[in-house]
Model the fold of this input.
Amino acid sequence: MRVINLKRQLILTTPNEDREFKLKENEDYVVPDGLIGRIEEQGFVESIFSNKEFYEILGHKIYNKEDLTNKSLLSFRNGGIGDLMFQLPAVRELKKKYPSLKFYLCCSSHYKPLFEGISFIDDLVELPLTLDYLKQFDYFVNFENLIENSKDAETVNAYELHARKFFIEPENYRPELVVNKNVEKEVLKDLQPYKDKKRIVISFAASATIRTVNPYFYKKFIELLDNRDDIMFFISGSKGQSKSIDEFIKLLPRKKVAKNCALTYGENIQQTMALIKNSHCVIGPDSGLLHIAGGLNIPLIGIFGAFPPSLRLKSYKNSIGLKGFGSVHPCHFGRGKWNCCFQHKWDNDNGSCFLAEKTKETYSPCMNLIKPEHVVEALKKLGVI
Done:
């Protein structure tokens, strides 16, 4: 996290999103490190009057196992769905230990609906925040780059890793999400034509190419189940993926896909949550939809490349992780005890796999070690089909 002061007002657009950051001049803002890079990319670096580490100014308020009775605590994480959800079990436990604690979760406006109805979150605040506003809080927990820059992230489950920052060990590491009942009613109307079908949600892509499944893998998987008239697929993802999903659906046999959910629900996380809650299984790479399924206790199948599925799925019931590596086929471009590839988009601008670049492929070769037949077998083990 950084504290910056600007010489003039700036309006910055966020990548892949139709949202803006409005920063006033002569105001101290606390912003994620990535926003500094965005300012530089958009040619406004000369507009920064001062740029300091958050720890230089408010480092004395970083939570370090203090008594939180009648205190306020705010957590930072400028990440996606999974990155934010990893905090939930620890926060739930903290609120049990300190009922008078006021907990505030900081995230982008797009992800705020994800946390609607969660009783142990007192309020949600959006980055960027002014320094004056932050001074009212007693303590902070900063999760920026916790997974990206930590060697422990290669061997420790993400929920456990985040709990360590809160100095607590939850009895139950499974997160809990709440679906808005009114939103769910509307989604159920959409699902009415498919009420007698096995509804399977496919997460089209992860946020980084290295973790994304080749769409032709999904095509072959769906073709394997073409003779099953009792199954209907829903292809989901972000709004920015909707055009790619449309093109993908054109390649599929008959009418096995109910709809492009990225187009229908891509801007509303609560609608996506309602869809997943009323589905029989979610299939996808290490992505937000997989974690939503885990938070709603819906069966899920994770497709992983060169790092162990247990690092993400250990806390989820009714989950199966398919891994594309092992003692016989480790990723030679990985590092650490597990030969894990953690060089995602923070090391590579396009989020690609280094081994794929060497072999002149788009997707990680580790993913090719997983076959569509493995997903069918996983569905059978989960009792979905």
Notes: Residues 2-53 form one domain. The mean pLDDT is 86. The first strand starts at residue 2 and ends at 6.
